[in-house]
Design goal:
Elements lengths: L1 H4 L14 H24 L2 H6 L1 H6 L3 H40 L5 H19 L16
Helix pairs in contact: 2-5, 5-6
């Protein structure tokens, strides 16, 4: 704990690939945040707010619940930005090779495959809606 307060990156315990800060942040992002986002997202629905008005009022109303939901989004965005920055700063090829192959034996190949996959995902996000294929049998037409 002292090393975290002093902004020193603690070392991972023997046999565990993640240090305490990584374990806490991953646990928070995987276990707490989805429940938070589902709960606040569900409470924004007018039907849910009308059916259980005591819960909505206890939390401050629908506008406060919307704000809490946006705070959850901000937490996710900050985590993603820090996570990507740490992967790049640590050793991009080695870290993404672990994700692609499950080992660090081929960092260049893993980096290339992972980067191409990211490019495919991001480029598909920015295709205008009119240019997307809506017919699943497009090659026959």
């Amino acid at each position: 704990m002292i090393s975290c307060i002093a902004f020193e990156v603690p070392h991972a315990p023997e046999g565990n690939g993640y240090n305490s800060v990584q374990q806490l942040s991953y646990t928070f992002i995987i276990m707490v945040m989805p429940a938070w986002m589902i709960f606040t997202g569900m409470l924004q629905a007018p039907a849910v707010a009308n059916h259980w008005p005591k819960i909505t009022n206890a939390l401050g109303g629908r506008q406060v619940i919307r704000t809490l939901h946006v705070v959850g989004l901000a937490i996710y965005l900050v985590f993603i930005i820090i996570h990507v920055a740490m992967v790049i700063l640590h050793d991009y090829g080695t870290e993404v090779s672990k994700m692609v192959f499950g080992h660090t034996g081929e960092p260049v190949k893993g980096g290339i495959i992972f980067t191409l996959g990211l490019e495919l995902v991001f480029s598909s996000m920015f295709v205008p809606p009119g240019h997307r294929c809506t017919n699943r049998w497009w090659w026959r037409s």
